[in-house]
Amino acid sequence: MTTPIIELRGITKSYGTIYALGGVNLHVNPGEVVGLLGDNGAGKSTLIKILAGVIKPTSGEILVNGSAASNWSPARSRAAGIETVYQDRALAVQQSIVRNIFMGRELAGPFGWLNMRKQIAEAERLMREIGFTSKVFSPHSIVGQLSGGERQGVAIARAILKQANLIVLDEPTTALSLTETAKVFHFVRQVRESGRSIVFIGHNIHHVFDIAERFVVIDRGRVAMEKTKAEVGSAHALIEFMEDVAKPHHAREIA
Ligand SMILES: Nc1ncnc2c1ncn2[C@@H]1O[C@H](COP(=O)(O)OP(=O)(O)OP(=O)(O)O)[C@@H](O)[C@H]1O
Ligand SMILES: [Mg+2]
């Protein structure tokens, strides 16, 4: 049995009398891409914010490499190697790729000067590592001139720099064209090749089916399904399941 790099057990989150999460178990194995699916308001973002330590669960346990973690926080989450990419909100579009990758973690040289040359070399290495193939862009390129998919790449490169072993992508392709989505997928595959794990949240079931190897469907704060790609069989089967989940409770009871 492999020990998951991270495991959530019985996580609940209530806002007053409303339960956003009603007891969720989720684990991520090393080197695995997990697809997290569910309707709007199902609780996906709440769950990954708990993973990131930015939201405190009402109850439940978090285990890192099999050991219970206490006082879970953003710092603890980062120390456990978890980095979350929240669409492209976190990027400074007027700044260069290298500035964005190193933002807040600039390499200092003698007298506290920024070691720009080292940063550029490292940015180049990271861009290659995640499969940035476009010859048009260098670490000096301004992020605002990159396409949506490439911007996701910069955000992913930044997460890798932080030594993430789990990168969480919350709807990284929602606003993107097919070509741009393909770029993000290419980056995700490269990250996986390097042995890191990924949690991929998406609305397009075809996309998520394509990229992930295990699927967790959240419905109204609970896990409605958890299956490997082999168990699900096809994107079509996954869509049918999702449609069934989306039916109101009484419709499902009658059916
Ligand atoms: N701060 C809050 N106060 C009250 N309710 C909240 C708060 N944050 C989230 N919720 C509720 O928790 C539920 C889960 O929201 P969440 O954002 O996790 O859903 P989601 O699955 O990410 O949806 P989407 O696909 O639309 O991004 C929703 O019903 C939401 O209204
Ligand atoms: Mg969300």
Arithmetic mean of pLDDT: 88
Q: Under the CATH scheme, which architecture would be assigned?
A: 3-Layer(aba) Sandwich
Strand order of the largest sheet: 6-7-8-3-9-10
Helicity level: 25-40%
CATH superfamily: P-loop containing nucleotide triphosphate hydrolases
Element order: H for helix, E for strand: EEEHEEHEHHHEHEHEEHHH
Q: What does this 3D model show about the protein?
A:
The chain has 255 residues and is of the alpha/beta class. The chain has one domain: Rossmann fold, CATH 3.40.50.300. 36% of the residues lie in helices and 24% in strands. The protein has ten helices and ten strands. Strands 6-7-8-3-9-10 form a six-stranded mixed β-sheet, with helices on both faces. A four-stranded antiparallel β-sheet has the order 2-1-4-5, covered by helices on one side. Helix 6 links the parallel strand 7 and strand 8. Helix 4 packs across helix 5 and helix 7 crosses helix 9. The longest helix is centred in the last third of the chain and has 16 residues. The protein is globular and about 60 Å long. The chain starts with 5 loop residues before the first strand and ends with a helix. The model has no long low-confidence stretch (mean pLDDT 88). Bound molecules: adenosine-5'-triphosphate and magnesium ion. The site of adenosine-5'-triphosphate has 11 residues, from strand 2 and helix 1.
